[in-house]
Each structure stands twice: as structure tokens, then as C-alpha cells.
Protein 1
Amino acid sequence: MKAYKLIIVTLCIILTYSCSNKKEKDPIAEVSKEVRSTSKIKSKENLNISIVLDLSDRINPKKYPKPSMEFYQRDLGYIESVAKTFENHIRGKRTNKINDKIQLFVEPAPSDSELNQKIATLKTQFDKTNATKDEILKTSKKYTEICNNIYETAITDDSYVGSDIRGFFKNKLQDYCVEEGYKNVVVVLTDGYVYHKDNLTKEQNRTSYLVPKTIRSFKLNKGNWKEKFQSKDYGFLPLHKNLENVEVLVLGVNPNKKNPYEEDVIKEYWKKWLTEMNVKKFQIKRADLPIHINDVINDFILSN
């Protein structure tokens, strides 16, 4: 009988000790165990992601058909990857450490006021007060649905005036996309060409625009293009901005096939422009199927 009581007392002590040493569970951290083991999470910084869409005629499936996957559909795949990377990043953090943002811009803004209201709903911030699993996982779905609506509207309207990417970098990026205490990432979805009907300036060999005709007129379609590019100072007109706390990922470059050097020239324009704005980290990627670009997006956003 005494032995039996001793066993009972011992078990009670063990259970009490075990319960008292259990750590309080974090619901997001518990949910994220699978995320940690399956994704390439490398950063616990607070993310501030901005996606900039180029809705020029590059997305026109009649003008630029791509049987394997239309360019606007590729964009939608890239956007979904960005949003899912954002979700996984948050799910990999403890709830009290979450303070992350994501938003989307179209420049110039669409003329459809209802569409602009939908774009406004994409501006999302998560912190410990609203970072539930269900709310976090709504992000990629919301981005995919609304962005699909944006592209469908633009293609149906069939009125392409270009995309003022330069104007966005000049007038809005620093004010809207840069936050202290955050890793500021700007993802630009574009074919690499820069054109807007209201932003066409040329000073010597520097321009505010870049289209295939520009490259041909500068005779950057020959084997000596790089030497000429450097010696004659071709490139975008500088903006005299200091964007050292911004990381830029350019996706969807689609060079004119008539010039074998076109892609290299486009990338050199962007490289020179971003470097002159003191952007320390950037990548410029050719258009490809989203399944191939997914790891590029994930690694760029999450790596230090």
C-alpha cells in the first residue's frame, strides 16, 4: 500500500513539473512549423513589399501572343509567388514579431474608379493584432483575384498609353515604398522597355524612355554595343535619387527578337540606372514561366 502511494505521489510531482515548464504556445509559430521545413526562409526582418505593374501593350495577347502562357498570365503567376512568399515569411515569425506590409501600384492609375478602390484594398499590413492563419492566407488569393481583374480590364479596354515607371521612381517610390525599420522590396513587372506618352525627354545620349526604336537609332544592335554604350554615355536620364535602402527586382524582360543584343542592352540600361540611384541589391530577369521564377522571387525577397 505504501509503495502504491509513493508511485502516485511521484507521478503527481512529475506531471506538475512538466506542466509548469511548458512554454506558452504561439498560434502562428505552431502553424508555421511546416512552413519552416519546406520553404527557403532566410530573413526575419519586417518586409515592406511594393509591386509595380507595367500595363502597356506588352500585355496585349493579340499583339504579343505567347502560346505557352500569355505574358499577363505570367505576371499573375509572379504576383501570386510574391504574395505567397510574403505569407510564408509571416508564418515563419512569432506573432509578437510580425509587422509586415505589401501593396500594389499601377502608374498611371486606371481611369476606372471602382478598379482603383480594389487596388487600394491590396494595401495590407499584418501585426500581432490581426495575424491569424486565415487572414494571412487570404493575401495571395486576394492579390490573384484583383490583379486578374486589373489585367482583364486593361486588355478589354485595349487603350494602351504606356507605363510611367520612370515617373513612379521619380515622384512616388521614396514616399510610398520606403519605411524605416523595414526591408523595402520593389518588384517591377515589365518587359524592360520604358515608355509613357507624357514622359518623353532626351538630353544628349540619355533618355527618359527606351523602346526598340531607341536602341536601333543609337546603333546599339551590333557586336560593339557595350563599348559604345559606355564611351558615349547612353542610358536613362538620371533621377538623382538615393535609394540605398531599397531592393529592386525586375521581372518579365521581353526583348525584341530582331536584335540579338537587345536583352543585354535593356539590362545594361536598368543596371546603370539603378546603380546611379544607389540601389545596392537588384536583379533583372527575362520573362519565363512562373514555375521557373518562383525560387528567384522567394530567394530575392527573403535572403539578406
Protein 2
Amino acid sequence: MTQRLRPVLLAAAGLGLFCATACTPDGRPASGAVRAPASAEARSDAPAADGPSARAAASESADGRPASASPPEPAATGGATRSPDVAASTAPPAPPAWPRAGFAGLSFAIPPDWTVVGQGDGIGCAEPRHSSGRPRMFGCSGLQIKAGSAIAGYEGEPYAPGGAGGWYAATDVQPCPVRPATADGSFNGVASAHSAPVESGLRPVGARQAWYDRWGAGCRDGSRFSPRAWYLPLSRVLFLDYTGHAETGRILGSVRFPG
């Protein structure tokens, strides 16, 4: 009887030693544990366990989840997906073409509801056909064009790029283009015109470069506006935008010169 029990006791002792490091609290071997001989596990110079199970155990966080696990795939939204090589958007359509008009040998495009009005020898105005109530300076509510001998600077002096008050060719007090009359109906004239440009440089007009100036100007009631001029000395043409119009840039970009 004693001889038959000895193998059982020895097996139990071996199991106990193994469970000291690789068993759960209820005595069962831990899931995925590597059964190595007791002598190999106890040796300090034994190589560390390697393989997928060991690496996974080393990378687990305190709550038992893999610390470096990949995030879950995003849930499908049910919408159509776009191929990466398909453009996200298309180019906006080109704006409708404007009709062309002419003055002093020049040709340029103007909005369909604009027209060119002659204002005297060598002076024209490209403006809306219905300009009532719009800001107006020197009788023009759009872009004024001067050519040849009609070009003048401050109070009729010869025009010079960068000159003080170069936009104001009148010798008398002109109505303010922003508010020609004050609240009580009295005359509201231009109060400050003879000032140096606040911005100067070269700007394109059609395929050529023009001298560009922008001034600051004011009226008696405190209103402010910014006249601008584009001067081409060889072509002897001066464009003037007294109050600022969204259409000016496109008109100037479309200019064609004779010859």
C-alpha cells in the first residue's frame, strides 16, 4: 500500500511546485501556461520565454487588455465612399462673357447692364445704365476714362504719378460722392483732396503695366472714400475709380490697345 502511494505523492509534489508559478488560485494550470521542467524555471540563467503568448503577456496593461492593440475598425456609415483618385470637387464654371465697348481707341469688356457715356473731349465714363442713387464723382458713377490732353492732375495741373491729390482735377469744391448732402439737406463738399497717395506701384491694365495710385479723401461731414488711378504715360490714358467698384478689376484686365 505504501509503495503504491509514493508515485502519487511525488506527482502531487511536482504539481504543487509547478502551480506555484503557473496555476490559478483554484489549482488549475493557467490558460496558455508553458509547462517547463521545474529545474529550468528555477535557474536564474534560463532564457526568458519567448513566442507569441509571452510577448502578448508582456504587452498587457493592468486590466488585462493588450496595451498595444489596434483600435477597432470604424463602423460603416452606409454612405457611398469616394475613390482616393477621384477629385473632391470640380472647377467652378467660368463667369458669363461681358460685351465689349470702346473709347478713345481702346476696347474693353463691361457688364451687360453698363454703358459708356461721353463726358466731353477725351473724357468718357463706363457706368451702370441705371445709376440713380449710386456714388458719383465728376458726373461718373463708374470708371472714368481720360485720354490725351484731357488728362490732368490736381486742380488742372499736369498729371504726375504719385502726385498729391492727382485724382482731383477740379478747381472748385465738388459735391462729396458718398453723401452729396448732409442730413439737413445742406451742401456736403469734398474737404480734403490734396494729400499724398497712401499706396503706389505698378498694376496691370490689359497686357501693359500702369502707374497705380490710391489716395485717402474726405468730406465735410466726415465721410471718407479712396480714389484710385491707373496711368499709362505712353498710351496717354488715365483710368479713375473714385469710390471703388467690384467690376473695375475685370474691366481693366480686359483692356485692348490699338495697334
Protein 3
Amino acid sequence: MPHLITPTTTAGAVQEQEMGVGVPGYAHPLLARVEWAELTRPGTPLHWAVLNVAEGPGDRPDPHCLEAAGRLKNARVRVLGHLDLSHGSRAFGEIVSDAHRFLDWYKVDGFYLDRCPTDRADLPEVRRLTATLEAVLDGSAHLVLSQGTHPYPGYAEAADQLVTFSGAWADYRWSQVAEWTAEYPPEKFVHLVHGVPRSHLDEAMRIARWQGAGTIFFTDHTGHAGHADRFGHTGAFQTLPGYWDEIVSRIGPGVSE
């Protein structure tokens, strides 16, 4: 897993880059058939999609999630299992157990570590966890730390990607990028923004490029965008944005990694 990447970008520099979409977790496949089916459409510039069965893998394999994950895998879409770190309060063994269930049941390609700590003091434990998760997938895991803000810089070397913004358009359009992000290429950073009006979609994409984010998810839906409930709902991100086709056409065509 290439955690250490040669610097290739400068914060604040507008440049052409291969931008793609990361889906932080649609509603349960039984309730969002259209959303999950859309992710397998050829040419969609999709970097990954998060599978959240019931605030994690659940207690037993879910047939609807098995089907959805299988279709994504067949379409060569990277599937990430949702692991809740509860800002560092969950037990290490409990998280690793969830990871094993995700792998055994849904054959995931990596993990999305939601509510990840941001402070320097928590970094050693997070690094211990990410090293273990990488071992669970024999060194091929794609790991995303979802913090929603800029963490202590050392976290950039603990995973493949960091979610450095997750929130509302009203905040995003005035946000600033941390200077240390200039040391990493755009593929290191993820921005998730809700409440983006269709008329401001171009502006949102310019901000993402300006701030050096290579993976995005923009939606016109509003509401809570954070921790998912037991049915896999993630508020504003649980359904397709109304301008999904526009996003695909503006940053595609692409091939899922």
C-alpha cells in the first residue's frame, strides 16, 4: 500500500488532474437499488464505494448487500467496508473483528475508517490499526481515514487517503487547505460536500482542484452527512445527487481502479 508518495502538487495551484468519485455510503441496497446499480455503469469515474450494512458488517451476511457487493466487484469497483472508530473510543479488537467479517462475507478491497481521530496523541494507535488492517488483506488494502477536517500531518502516512473535508457547501466554499497538504498529490485527499446547488457545481469542482483533492462526492441534498445509522443511512449522502450525470460527464470518462 503506497502510503508514502512522492510530492507532485502545490497547495493553491490549479492543475489538471484525474479527479474521481468516492461514494461514502448509500442507503441499504434494498432501499436504494437505483443508487447501487448506477455505480456499475461503464465509464463512471469511481474510485471506491463504501458498504455499510448496519454500522459495520452486521451480525450475519446480508443477502442484499452480498448481491450489491458482488455486482460492484464484477464491475471492477473497489468496495470498502465501513468501520466506525468512534473518535478513538472503540476497542482495537472489536474493529479488527468487524474487518474480518467484512472480508469473509463481502470480499472487500479495503476499509473506510469513519470518525477517525485527528490529534497527534492518537496517531500511534491509528497506525497500529491501519497496519493490522493492511495485513488482514495481505498488504493490498485501500484505507481511507475519514476525519472531515485536516488532522495532524502524520496521519497522511498512515493510510492511502484522508477525508479532509466533510460538510456543507456553505462552509466548503470558504474553506482553506492546510499548508502541509502541499507535500502530497491529489490522490491523497477526499472532499465530501452536501448542499451544493447545481448552479455552483463548477465552483465546487474548482475549489476541490485548487485545494488538491483527487476524490470527491458532491450532492445537492442537505442534512446530516456524518455517522450512519443501523440501516446504513448517511443522511445527505444516502442517495444520488440530482446532477449525478453532470458530475460523471465533467470528470469522466474514467475506469474504476
Protein 4
Amino acid sequence: MSSSEFDLAYDELLARWPESTEERDVATPYGPTRVHVYGPADGTPLVLLPGGSATGLAWFANAAALGESYRVHAVDLLGDAGRTVRRGTPLRSADDLMAWLDALLDGLGLARTHLCGHSYGAWAAVRYALHAPQRVDRLALVDPTQVFAGFRPGYLMRALPTLIRPSEDRARAFLAWETGGTHLDETWLRLYALATTLPDRKLIAGGRPSAADLHMPVLVLLAEHSRAHRVGKVAERARRTLSQGEVALLPGATHHSLPFTAPKELNDRLMDFLARDREDWGIAAR
């Protein structure tokens, strides 16, 4: 696969974003970071971190609705596919990932923000909320992995061929298995499959963060049919662990079909969570 094929697929999905979306390359010591920005300039900031291989464009079905009330910043992750470039300080550890996010928020002029992540992006978001709690107002986790429970062994076994010998066909077969017949947007699917074949990706892994040390409102949205982990176990542990946690199920969703499957329900739940007055916010688990 040539990088030009990936770039063409990237631009095709970018065209699905609202017309007034701004493309920003924010300078950091680790290289320039691509951020897709949409919404009123004076809107409350909301930073979105995607899952692995998905790029910040994965929020294409959510941006218009979220951008009515919030200034959306959807990020291409450092070390992953997209138009964020590794250059300068080497990316070696989770501490580097946190330092990069510090620099990114500084470059965006965000002293404090709402933070939302999907999958690997949710893991990074939890790490960052623990690293810099003064900068995170509310935290939303969309089918988070490696936070409340590990991956299911069967999921890892299915993912292994794509990791060892990546190809577009293997990525598509893996997604077809995990999503179980759920309709996937073909433009996003092609970009994701091509992303897995890029040779210079370097996702930083790490242990499970201590979610019990999160002292802010946290929303956990789980995919009803996720094969990445045991949804019931994740829900039970999230409810037990979080001091200010709300857990909800997204009916019909699978891990990799988020966040663009049934976006209205995801958007509505997220905006309700973000808009709620702090004094009215309590522990809710449903």
C-alpha cells in the first residue's frame, strides 16, 4: 500500500466533516499534531481521542451535533496513523504521551477541557486525567480498553494476524468478525484498513491506570456487543471503581463500529453528561 492511497482515503473521510472544519497542525516537541477543529470559537472545549488506527476523523458522524454547543478538537494520535508527524523528541513511553498531550493542549490554548476517548484513546484519556486532573473538567470513555478489564483472549487471537502480517484484507476480515454484521461506513472502513498497513506506526502500550484515583465526573459508554472485552465485567468494575461514575450501554453497538454507529444516542448521552450542573451530578449507574 502506498501512502498516497492512505492520503486519498483520508481526504475522502475528511470531506464528510462539516464544511467549516479547521485543519490545524499544532507544534509540539514530538512533532506537529493534526487536529480537526469544529464549533463556535467561544464554545466550551471538547477534545476527542480516537481508537487505534481510526484517526481523529473517526468522529465524522458526531462532529456536527457536538459542535453546536462545544468547540470540538479531534486529534490524530501521536505514533498512530494520520497526519500527526513524529519529529523531534522521541516517543518512548506513556510519560512521553502525557507530555505530548500537555504540549498539545498548550498549543491549542486550552487550560482546561472536557476529554473524551474511544478504545485506546480512552486509555490515553484516563492516563491524562490522572496525570493532569486540573486540566480535565469531565471525562468520557467510549468502550474503553485496558482500563477496567483486559482484552478477551479470543479478541487478541483474532487480532494477531493483522498485527503480525498487516494487510487491508486481514484488517477487513477482523473488523467483519468483531462487528458481527453491523453496517460499517465504507469510507471509514477503507481508511482504517489502510492505516493498519502503515510501516511507521508506534502505539505506546502500558498497564491499566488506577481509575479509582479519578476524582471528576466520568461517563462510561459501553458497546452492547463489544467483543474486545466482557461488557458486563467492565460495567460492574466501572460502577464499583468510580467515585463519580455513570455507566450506560449503547444498544446494538460493537467496539469497532463506534463512535459512528447510532451517533445520535452517543451524542445525546455525551452532551447530557457534559451539560449537567455539577451540583446535580451524582453517582448514576444504569
